[in-house]
TrEMBL record:
Segments passing through the bilayer: none
Protein's name in the database: Beta-alanine--pyruvate transaminase
InterPro entries linked: Aminotrans_3, Aminotrans_3_PPA_site, PyrdxlP-dep_Trfase, PyrdxlP-dep_Trfase_major, PyrdxlP-dep_Trfase_small
SUPFAM superfamilies linked: PLP-dependent transferases
Family the entry assigns: Belongs to the class-III pyridoxal-phosphate-dependent aminotransferase family.
Organism: Oharaeibacter diazotrophicus
Gene Ontology molecular function: any one: adenosylmethionine-8-amino-7-oxononanoate transaminase activity
Entry keywords, A to Z: Aminotransferase, Pyridoxal phosphate, Pyruvate, Transferase
Any one of the GO BP annotations: biotin biosynthetic process
Transferase found in the keyword field: yes
CDD domains with a match to the protein in the record: OAT_like (cd00610)
Any Pfam family hit: Aminotran_3
Length: 443
């Protein structure tokens, strides 16, 4: 394919307040993508950059894939929008019916949203409303986990556990508590796959339940693999134990699968990978491979049926978005599912995982590397922070890797990797070789 010409950088970068970005640093030395195809981006100065992060953990089928592009183009011309409330359109039902096949029974209904954050808010609201609908209205408390990331809305940051995402925003939701995180480098550094030690951290849920009493708790929400905090992989047996404790105390378990959904671990969802069935599963990102904003919440038959009572003309759940099941998003999702299925991408991560793991762990021993961890097609390299300057070392690595033609992502001093599921072995080697070069020269 042709390399695009240099595209002029706009004169005025000031008006756009960029999200989760060091705005002043960026605007001094902007990094603009102008084109994407397959595994690559192209920058405004004409450079080709290998995508090591699937955009933001979302472009799982790669970029500008024909089935997705065509589905979106066709849909806009055919039905641009249909009201989301009290009206429908065929593709919303077709998509829901196809999606529930990726999850085990009884997770057989899906509520559509437009992002991961909205999926989380939706799941938390359904949890509280469900408890009330079944006559357990005192069960309103929500339990999250330290270092958890559940998007940026008030519910999500309240159950979330990333200090910078919480501390600027006041008192957050009341009636929320957290269990401890599972990160334990003293015992698990350089583990390949699921860590051996730490299943007992699940017992922290018993402590929190004892404090508040199960009669006040609606739900526990966790990411099966915590992504945005820097890839924390659950210790062996940990998630099963959380499920047992929730069952024992009649508490809903929500898996936030915004990152792990759609093939990231080599199974359609992490539910299958860990063989643990929660009561709700949130998703977004990979549902449309990032092409059109969309998310969803899968719920069990019991949860859905609990709401389906009362007069038939009455709305059962007072919740929804103007763009829930937007026709163009549904078309993008159907094109994405076709691509996943035609190319076997939802399980391709399992085939590539051993190669990915071996390649990543060659970075052990390079300067400042205090951990390398991996699961499915996720990887993380944790760096020792520069004393007094947290995040600077990894951010420098990000800039250097970008200059050398590889897009990585950093959070704190952790480098996180999550390439599109179409990545080749050569491209894995390219990511790792570039990172090795960057790490060797890092101050
Ligand atoms: C586990 C998890 N939940 C929720 C979100 C929020 O998704 P969004 O940015 O689409 O609102 C993310 C985003 O990375 C996520 O990783």
């Amino acid at each position: 394919m042709n390399r695009p010409e240099r595209v002029p950088v706009p004169n005025n970068l000031e008006s756009f307040w960029m999200p989760f970005t060091a705005n002043r640093q960026f605007k001094k030395d902007p990094r603009l993508f102008v084109k994407a195809e397959g595994m690559h981006y192209w920058t405004s100065d004409g450079r080709k950059v290998l995508d090591g992060t699937a955009g933001l953990w979302c472009c799982n089928v790669g970029h500008s894939r024909p089935k997705v592009v065509e589905a979106v183009q066709r849909q806009i011309a055919e039905l641009d929008y249909a009201p989301a409330f009290q009206m429908g359109h065929p593709k919303a039902f077709e998509l829901a019916a196809r999606l529930v096949n990726y999850l085990p029974s009884p997770l057989d209904h899906v509520f559509f949203t437009n992002s991961g954050s909205e999926s989380v808010e939706t799941a938390l609201k359904i949890a509280i409303a469900y408890q009330r609908a079944r006559g357990k209205g005192t069960k309103t408390r929500l339990i999250g986990r330290e270092r958890g990331y559940h998007g940026v809305n008030f519910g999500g940051i309240s159950v979330g556990g990333i200090p910078n995402n919480r501390k600027f925003f006041g008192s957050l939701l009341t009636g929320v508590d957290h269990i401890r995180h599972t990160h334990d480098l003293s015992r698990n550094a350089f583990t390949r796959g699921e860590p051996e030690y730490g299943a007992e951290y699940a017992e922290d849920l018993e402590r929190v339940i004892a404090l508040h009493d199960a009669s006040t708790i609606a739900a526990v929400i966790v990411e099966p693999v915590a992504g945005s905090t820097g890839v924390l992989i659950p210790p062996k047996g940990y998630l099963k134990r959380l499920r047992e404790i929730c069952d024992k105390h009649d508490i809903l378990l929500i898996f936030d699968e915004v990152i792990t959904g759609f093939g990231r671990l080599g199974t359609p969802f992490a539910v299958e990978y860990f063989d643990v069935v929660p009561d709700m599963v949130t998703c977004a990102k990979g549902i449309t491979s990032g092409v059109i904003p969309m998310g969803g919440v899968f719920v069990t038959k019991d949860i859905y049926d609990t709401f389906m009572t009362g007069p038939e003309h009455m709305i059962e759940l007072f919740h929804g978005y103007t763009y829930s099941a937007h026709p163009v998003a549904c078309a993008a999702a159907l094109g994405t599912l076709d691509t996943y299925e035609d190319e076997g991408l939802l399980t391709r991560g399992a085939e590539l995982a051993p190669y990915w793991e071996t390649a990543l762990h060659t970075l052990k021993g390079l300067p400042h590397v205090i951990d390398v961890r991996n699961i499915g097609l996720i990887g993380a390299i944790e760096l020792e922070s520069i004393p007094g300057e947290p995040t600077k070392r990894a951010f420098t690595a990000f800039l250097e890797a970008y200059e050398k033609g590889v897009l990585i992502r950093t959070t704190g001093d952790i480098i996180a990797l999550s390439p599109p599921l179409i990545i080749s072995k050569d491209e894995i080697d390219e990511i790792v070789a570039t990172l090795a070069m960057v790490l060797k020269n890092l101050a």
